[in-house]
Structure formats: structure tokens, C-alpha cells
Amino acid sequence: MKTVIIFDHPYTSNASENVPHQRSFLAAVYKQVQTQLTAEHGEVDLIDLHADHFDPVMSAQDLANWRRGVPINDQIADYQARLLDADQIILMFPIWWEVMPAMTKGFLDKVYSKGCLYEAGSMQTKLVKQPQIKVITTMSTPSWLYRWVFGAPLLKALFRGTFLKTRLFHFKWYGFSQVEKKSLAQRQEMIRKFKV
């Protein structure tokens, strides 16, 4: 099974070690997921948005290409080809102000585009393998507050507003909440036990 992981964190996927101001719990989770999937004889294809210097901003020329249903640039065309070949797609990012960061939003805007990865009129996905979509997030907001007070806006935007709309039905969200309040030993145990 081929898994494409879209990783969005300013410190990149290499920040899994416990180095102050250069560490990311999300990167440590990525390392665990990559190890798990490789052990299961899966192929892991990493798209590390910050390491790739991905530009999330949609320019006027980008939008003109998007409207014509052609890839915006070579990097986008490469990402699209990799997604078309995926059996599983995993998005990994921190939740900031209750939604995804700019890199992830820009990735969806520019890469998951009409004419390239879904049909413009019917909204039918072109991802013919019907990949499993998994989302792994970290956030400071308590889980109960995020779901019951804020209404889980990420689920509305990603599951209902993007994937369900384009008929990608296999969606699962794994959320890590308030990790910064855990001890190092507790964080390490959470990562050790985590499986996608």
C-alpha cells in the first residue's frame, strides 16, 4: 500500500528529537507513523511542505491556471501525480486558531484542484483508488472544548467541505490535545502507542 503524507510544520519532519525550540511533537508522531508503515511493508511518500518551500499563496496567474484546470506549476503537478497514485493520504499539521495552518490550506487550494484531481461539474474525485484519508493534528485547545464549544471547525472544513463533497468517504481524524501539558515520559508513551 502506498501512503502519501502531507506534513505541515515550520520545523519540518526532521524535528523529532527533543531539542528545545527545534522540536515538534508532530514530527515525532510522523517518525512513528513512518516506522509503522514501513514495518508493514508499505511505501511512504513524504511531502514536507516547509522543506519543499511550498508557496501557499494563490496568485492571479495561479488562479487563472486553476480555472482552466491545469496544474499551477511543476511542483503542483508533481504533488498531484503522487496523490493520484496513493492508496492512503495522511495530512499532518497543528491546529492554529481552530483550523489548519496556511500551508495546508494553500495545499488544498492549489493541489486538490478542479480538472486535475476532481471534475469541475460533478465534483467527483479523480483519485480512482478511493484512498483512505487520515488527518493527524496537534492543538492546545482541550478536545471537549474544540468539539462542543467551537463545533470542530476542522471536521466541517475538511471532511464535509472537501473530501465528502468530492466523494472521498473514508476519513479518520486523530487529534492530540494539550500535549505541552504532558511530561516527556507521557509524550513518549503516547507516541509509542500510536498507530494509524
Automatic annotation (TrEMBL):
- Say if the entry is tagged with keyword Disulfide bond: no
In its keyword annotation, does this UniProt entry include Coiled coil? no
What SUPFAM superfamilies would the database entry show? Flavoproteins
Q: Which GO terms describe its cellular component?
A: cytosol
Q: Mind listing the UniProt keywords for this protein, alphabetically?
A: Oxidoreductase
Gene3D superfamilies per record? 3.40.50.360
Ranges where the Flavodoxin-like fold domain occurs: 1-179
Q: Which residues are in coiled coils?
A: none
The family database entries (InterPro entries) matched by this protein are listed as: Flavodoxin_fold (IPR003680), Flavoprotein-like_sf (IPR029039), NAD(P)H_dehydrogenase_qn (IPR051545)
Against Pfam families, the record matches this protein to: Flavodoxin_2 (PF02525)
Q: Give GO MF terms, alphabetically.
A: NAD(P)H dehydrogenase (quinone) activity
Q: Which family does it belong to?
A: Belongs to the NAD(P)H dehydrogenase (quinone) family.
- Record protein name field: Flavodoxin-like fold domain-containing protein
Q: Name its species.
A: Secundilactobacillus odoratitofui DSM 19909 = JCM 15043
